[in-house]
Design a protein that fits this description.
By secondary structure, the chain is an alpha/beta fold. It is built from 9 helices and 15 strands. Helices cover 27% and strands 25% of the residues.
């Protein structure tokens, strides 16, 4: 099978496409033919091993001290089950699925084996493989943080980095739950976030939303550049900061702030659950949640896709088409 691999940390060119042995499912696993996967900012950070403050040593211990321990990136996918292990009963060959691969990564390959009891769910009806893949990472991250932040109808939320994969999903979910959304993004993404449901848009290049007059019940920071020290100025009493790209100090703040502050920091890794994927699929089928795709690249051009995502200007998701040929254009 073909797979995008990297054997050292570094720039986009360290990612190359090579032939690897196709995996075989264990008794509790599914073998999935990956049709589409996303290239997320997390993939870029791992490729460069540039992680949030405080996690450098831990990241090297988990992902590889001097070189990547797991050479295939990719945390989400849409594909088709082609074989099942002897202990699997609730999936069958031919099923279309969406999945999160967790810390093992591995979605940037033509085939992958995943635990049948992991974060896997039937693919939403009415979506193609590109759209289904674009639903997964941003959707599950937004859903998990908004739940932990206990967003409720009538509240106000500012989403920093509203034009990315997580931000696009968060706008739609927050609006669906009856919240008023302010999108923090560049002017080039104004039309997109308005279309998704943002009531107000702040151009971060012209205005610092943390120094304005507005106070928000929740602030979702998907970029990691609106820490507690700044965001607290824009929080309403008992407000919550959702630190999606949390540093170690922010995680510690999440533990100790409740001792003397009414405001909260919500941080920490997202849960990866099949039921969340199933809920996202239902919302997509109902027309509540619409995947946003910026660009699609064939697997052969994945280094170019890395360079594009690295610029930090993508709108929604960048999708890698595992079925495309090297000459396909989108």
């Amino acid at each position: 099978m073909k797979a995008a691999v990297y054997y050292r940390y570094g720039p986009a060119d360290v990612v190359t496409v090579t032939e690897m042995q196709q995996p075989q499912p264990k008794p509790h696993q599914l073998l999935i033919r990956v049709h589409a996967a996303c290239l997320n900012s997390a993939d870029v950070r791992l490729r460069r091993l540039q992680v949030p403050l405080g996690f450098g040593l831990l990241s090297r211990l988990v992902f590889g001290i001097t070189a990547p321990r797991r050479p295939i990136l990719g945390a989400d996918l849409a594909g088709r089950v082609v074989a099942i292990g002897s202990q699997v009963s609730h999936f069958q060959p031919g099923d279309k699925v969406i999945a999160l691969t967790g810390i093992t990564m591995g979605a940037h390959a033509e085939y992958i084996c995943l635990d049948a009891k992991g974060a896997i769910a039937p693919m939403p009806r009415g979506l193609d493989f590109h759209e289904a893949a674009a639903l997964v990472f941003g959707g599950t991250t937004a859903l998990d943080f908004l739940r932990r932040g206990r967003l409720s109808a009538g509240e106000t939320i500012a989403i920093n980095g509203a034009g990315g994969a997580v931000g696009c999903a968060a706008i739609q979910l927050a609006r669906h739950w009856g919240a008023k959304v302010t999108a923090i993004c560049s002017a080039s993404k104004r039309e997109l976030v308005r279309r998704l449901g943002a009531a107000e848009v702040v151009d971060y290049q012209q205005e610092d939303f943390t120094r304005g007059d507005e106070r928000y019940d929740l602030i979702m920071d998907t970029q990691g550049n609106a820490p507690w020290a700044e965001s607290r100025r824009a929080l309403a009493p008992a407000g919550r900061l959702l630190a999606v790209c949390a540093t170690l100090p922010q995680m510690l703040q999440a533990l100790v702030l409740p001792l003397w502050q009414r405001e909260r920091v919500i941080a920490g890794p997202c849960a990866e659950r099949a039921q969340d994927l199933a809920e996202l699929a239902q919302l997509a089928e109902a027309g509540v949640l619409r995947p946003v795709i910026d660009r699609v690249y064939p697997l052969a051009q994945i280094a170019e896709a890395h360079r594009y995502v690295e610029q930090g200007h993508k709108q929604g998701s960048v999708v890698i088409d595992m079925m495309a040929t090297s000459t396909d254009r989108y």
